[in-house]
Amino acid sequence: MNSEEDVVGTYVYRCDNCREESDPLTRRELDTVRHDHRHQFHGGLKPDGELVLQPERMRLADLPREQRIVGGILLAVILLSFLAKVA
Predict the structure, then answer these.
(1) What is the dihedral of CA 65, 67, 68, 71, to 10 degrees?
(2) 3-class SS string, the chain
(3) Alpha-carbon torsion 66, 62, 23, 6, what sign?
């Protein structure tokens, strides 16, 4: 199984000095791309303007209204089932 940090498309490497930006990468790929770029173009040094971009985490408010409603109903059914077994 992939760990959370190995999800494809999680990170983007950007070097503002070179005006280069990678495609979406896993964390392992990011480390390799960053290391290779530093050694190939900057003599192994960290360039000014080097960035690692991550998308913002999804919030419950970002879900469509219908999905929030269905999620709430499912949560209520699970909770009521649990309470019925306990009682």
Answers:
(1) 160
(2) CCCHHHCCCCEEEEECCCCEECCCECHHHHHHHHHHHHHHHCCCCCCCCEEEECCCCCCHHHCCHHHHHHHHHHHHHHHHHHHHHHC
(3) negative
Q: Digits of tens for pLDDT over the chain (87 positions)?
A: 445 545 556 899 999 999 999 998 898 999 999 999 999 999 988 888 898 888 777 788 888 999 999 999 999 999 999 999 987
Q: Which residues pair with 21 in a beta bridge?
A: 14
